[in-house]
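Box S1 | Example of a co-folding query
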Amino acid sequence: MKRKPDTIFITFEKALKKRFAVGAFNFYNLETLQAILEAGEAMASPVICSVSEGALKYMGIDATVMMFDALTEKKKYPAYLHLDHGKSFEVCRKAIDAGFDSVMIDGSSLPFDENVKLTKRVVKYADKHGVFVEGEIGTLSGIEDNVEVEDKDARFTNPKEAKQFVMQTGVNSVAVAIGTSHGAYKFSGEPKLRIDILSEIEKELGKFPIVLHGASTVDAKIVRQINARGGKIKGAKGVSPKELALICSEHNVCKVNVDTDLRLCFIASLRKNLKASPKEINPRFFLSDAREEMKNLVISKIKLFQGNL
Ligand code: G3H
Ligand code: 13P
Ligand code: ZN
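Box S1 (continued) | Returned holo structure for glyceraldehyde-3-phosphate
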């Protein structure tokens, strides 16, 4: 399918203007992609289908694009294929050449000037192909990142640096660090996000699309279900859904990334059915239920990112 360029830019403009966020959901096989797309259709909403470098390796770039194109050909509402956390110019170039709608170049672990240089190079290439580019500035914090810093605020995005970054690179959106982190263990104590820093960034950037990574809410009920069925996930904690709904409806956050919650949901379903149906050997029996539960979860995320709890 030949995708229509520009629609992703229009989607971000709408999100910024109307104050909602588009959900960016990670997929890594047929069922997870179907779940995301079906949820988008059910909600008459755009969705961003994210592929990490790991997922790209797992599926292969050609199969990823062909599967995405085949499944989206007859869709009514837009779905965008997005590279999540591309770490090099080469991987972004490959994704752009293969037909991705959007790429994230993640130079956030580099010194500022190197991040700018790398991001600028990707923007220049992407521009020629009408592809949307997300950059990142700041270090996603949390108990996983093992980064020892003297000044605790140093790990968060510096609002003035964010402005410099956006101006110097020409990115279309920017991912910021305000206290979220990837994975199921986001907070050792009370979940706390730096909304004050987000507001400062917004003051610096004006009306500009901001992206929130590490936004899974890690539902305690699902974690309990997994643990009750043989899983071992202890001390998991995510972002508060209430705070997330507020962030989406009162700030310039236009894209919210979710992977961990989808994984938890999929695994909880598999564990439940594997235990309940020990004689069943048809993988489709298990996968179809997991897909349905993931679809329902994506629907609830879309509602949340529209500001509805
Ligand atoms: O942002 C990271 C995503 O959760 C992707 O994780 O590299 O294991 O696919 P992954
Ligand atoms: P979670 O691990 O909180 O789902 O975040 C996913 C993410 O940011 C993907 O880029
Ligand atoms: Zn991320």
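The first strand starts at residue 22 and ends at 26. The domain at 6-299 is CATH 3.20.20.70 (TIM Barrel).
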